[in-house]
Amino acid sequence: MNVLIVYAHPEPKSLNGSLKDFSVKRLEEAGHTVQVSDLYAMNWKALLDAHDSVERQAGERFDPSRESKHAYANGLQSKDIEREQEKLKWADAVILQFPLWWFSMPAILKGWVERVYAYGFAYGVGEHSDARWGERYGEGMFAGKRAMLVVSTGGWESHYSSRGINGPMNDVLFPIQHGILYYPGFDVLPPFVIHRTSRVDAAKYAEVSDALGQRLDALWTTTPIPFRPQNDGAYTIPDLTLRADIAPDRVGFAAHVE
Ligand SMILES: Cc1cc2nc3c(=O)[nH]c(=O)nc-3n(C[C@H](O)[C@H](O)[C@H](O)COP(=O)(O)OP(=O)(O)OC[C@H]3O[C@@H](n4cnc5c(N)ncnc54)[C@H](O)[C@@H]3O)c2cc1C
């Protein structure tokens, strides 16, 4: 299998750096082919702007979606974007690995998503009708591929528990897991989260890497998070609201998990 690790940490000797190296080795030893997009090492351009197309459309006003659609459809995207899209097409599984910074991914990784997820590639795909609302949330370019987050946090596990002060980890990660990964079609595996990183020493590292190794070994067999597909009848179209008779007591993020 082909595995792409998109990795965002500025320091190779960090905990994240060590765990990324560990993952590459573990996956390769299991016979998989691995590519790493090491965003800091690549000096990845994080800002989506008018330079993302090698030939801008005429007109003074820069419209990010329209420009992305035009560049993607006409082979005018900048090469760095194209290269990452090729890696995504190549991958059977994608791992996004990052330290949690301000309750989300580091800006460089967000910028990777914004630029690489072009109109016509990751969004704006498929028919819009009374029965379907595009190919997204369970359908789309990445259908059949798996994705998983590997995330480290300074906060403790209890801080991210169901009544923890930071909010439950599933809620914190929902915009990434449901919005960035499930939206374009990935089957999203439960995240691998390392909490309270300041306490990681050699003994804890051995424990963490062992647990991560087990998750990597089970990359192809782990049951994905059962997010609800958009076009299978659970949502009314076009208002895209969960039907009143489905999980009537559930609201918010949890309502979108079967
Ligand atoms: C801008 C910013 C925003 C943040 N926002 C949040 C937030 O919203 N929520 C939150 O919970 N946290 C937050 N944090 C904390 C952040 O998530 C952690 O600092 C980060 O996850 C630690 O990962 P690291 O790879 O940088 O660890 P490092 O600092 O590199 O390492 C952590 C520990 O692991 C040890 N270690 C590293 N490698 C090894 C190895 N190979 N063997 C044994 N021990 C090792 C180190 O000695 C160190 O003690 C934030 C931090 C920053 C800088």
Automatic annotation (TrEMBL):
Flavodoxin-like fold domain boundaries: 1-214
Keywords from the UniProt entry: Oxidoreductase
A cellular-component GO term for this protein: cytosol
Entry keyword Iron-sulfur: no
This enzyme's EC code(s): 1.6.5.2
Highest taxon listed in the record's lineage: Bacteria
Gene3D superfamilies cross-referenced by the UniProt entry: 3.40.50.360
Pfam annotation, one family: Flavodoxin_2
GO molecular function, one term: NAD(P)H dehydrogenase (quinone) activity
InterPro entries given in the database record: Flavodoxin_fold (IPR003680), Flavoprotein-like_sf (IPR029039), NAD(P)H_dehydrogenase_qn (IPR051545)
Family (UniProt): Belongs to the NAD(P)H dehydrogenase (quinone) family.
Listed name of the protein: NAD(P)H dehydrogenase (Quinone)
